[in-house]
Amino acid sequence: MNRRFIAGLAGLVLLFALAGSATAAHGPTLTAGAAKLANGSGKLPAPLPAHGQRSVCAAAVPGLAHCDAHIVTADGAPAPLATPSYQYGYTPQNLANAYKWADPTGSAPWNGNGQTIAIVDAYDNPNVESDLAVYRSQFSLPACSTANLCFRKVNQRGDTAPPAGNTGWGQEIALDVEMVSAVCPNCKILLVEADSNSFADLGVAVNEAVTLGATAISNSYGGGEFFGETSYAGPYNHPNLAITASSGDGGYGVEIPAAYNTVVAVGGTSLRTAANARSWAETAWSGAGSGCSSQISKPSWQTDLGCSRRTVADVSAVADPSTGVAVYDTYGSSGGANWYVFGGTSVAAPIIASVYGLAARNAGTTDYPARLAYASPGSLFDVTSGSNGSCSRGKRNTSNRYLCTAGPGYDGPTGLGTPNGLGGF
């Protein structure tokens, strides 16, 4: 990443004066170029007031998964920070500007190509399609519905009868489909809802997404490694298909399915505007998962020396709730306040799956799409600062500090970096 400050750039201001802790106030004060991409109405996101954050899904026991979505909460309270109209959180246009899949002047918006991005989650969100319509209308994105064949929702058997509803997983679903919309507005969305949050059911849902023609599959969930985890790896092994998995939200540590060496493991960053050539800057998010798998072998394209097995992550995108994204959801709301701010590597996983959609990486020319980033690491924005915990093996042995600390080149929390256009995807 080019991190040199460029003198004489008038009109550029810092987005955050504070490092994004869970209670720091922030506000997306955008540069002149970014302002043109603020949203469909030209309105800029308002500064977040003092706030906290929490997971929307309960922790899971081995063999079960938890979703990796975190919601911004009102300061000192467990209740979400919710508003009846859009105010806070990054918009599709902000993300396009930060990650350069749109012209920064706003004159050439990003394009889609009709590919199908699948979202695999557990349980049902009965309001997902109507909420998606509000989100896309707010940000001037084309309609995506069952009627126009853009949106499709099925259960893990490919049928239309939904599984039982679940509020936490329902919010994860809303986040995921809206992030696909944000990144690739002209991609089709296939939502496959598993019967439960067991890895057995989720794996069936992944295979169903493949059967139904998905060209990229996002998995925003995980669970800590456990004995026998390799028995659930099969559904995540589909050569020539981009399958992304969030790295986790508990800081340093590894979870599956991100640890499987056939997926693209997606870490997380804090994203802010900055007075540099890019107009944005990123650091590793303290909550992003990373590390060295205890059981999964190292893929041939990984060459880091501090881990003899699979290293997490591969690439990354915004995940810090304090620099989070706008999400519209009525299923988990009350009183008509339906606009939230979400973070977690649950944001990053569908973002990266959708970048593969923009890049049209479904032609069968690459066995495992993670390989593409390792072949051209200079095509991504390198993230060189920030940490998600402690991973050194003693004061004198710092050879594995990169597993939990961002630095030049490859590191655990952010992998090879974040999208810079479509290079590496």
Set down the secondary structure blueprint.
Elements: H1 32-35, E1 51-55, E2 66-67, E3 70-74, H2 92-99, E4 116-122, H3 128-138, E5 151-155, H4 167-183, E6 188-194, H5 199-211, E7 216-219, E8 221-224, E9 242-246, E10 255-256, E11 264-273, E12 280-284, E13 291-297, E14 309-312, E15 315-318, E16 325-328, E17 339-343, H6 345-359, H7 370-375
Parallel strand pairs: 4-6, 4-7, 5-6, 7-9, 9-11, 11-15
Antiparallel strand pairs: 1-3, 2-8, 3-17, 8-10, 11-12, 13-14, 16-17
Helix pairs in contact: 2-4, 3-4, 4-6
Structure description:
With 425 residues, this protein is an alpha/beta fold. 17% of the residues lie in helices and 20% in strands. The chain has helices spanning 32-35, 92-99, 128-138, 167-183, 199-211, 345-359, 370-375, and strands at residues 51-55, 66-67, 70-74, 116-122, 151-155, 188-194, 216-219, 221-224, 242-246, 255-256, 264-273, 280-284, 291-297, 309-312, 315-318, 325-328, 339-343. Strands 4, 5, 6, 7, 9, 11, 12 and 15 form an eight-stranded mixed β-sheet that branches. A four-stranded antiparallel β-sheet has the order 1-3-17-16. Helix 4 packs parallel to helix 6. The relative contact order is 0.17.
